[in-house]
Request: fold
Amino acid sequence: ENFAFIEAFKGRLRAEYLTVNWFMSLHDACETLKRWRGDYNTIRSHRAIGSKSLKSLNNHAGVTSLPA
Reply:
């Protein structure tokens, strides 16, 4: 199985979230991660899916379908 996408996500998470933020508490870390995740899933474009956002892949039933 190809887990390259997981490694790519882990790299993004580390570079854009873990190494650039100082957290004052566990609650602060969770809230900051929630905002980062929201941006990653709804706003950010992803080259692997034609520079679209993950949210744009939702069909009318609300099910996410990744391109083949």
Observations:
- The mean pLDDT is 79.
- The helical segments are 4-18, 26-42.
- The two ends are 15 Å apart (CA to CA).
- Residues 42 and 55 are 5 Å apart (CA to CA).
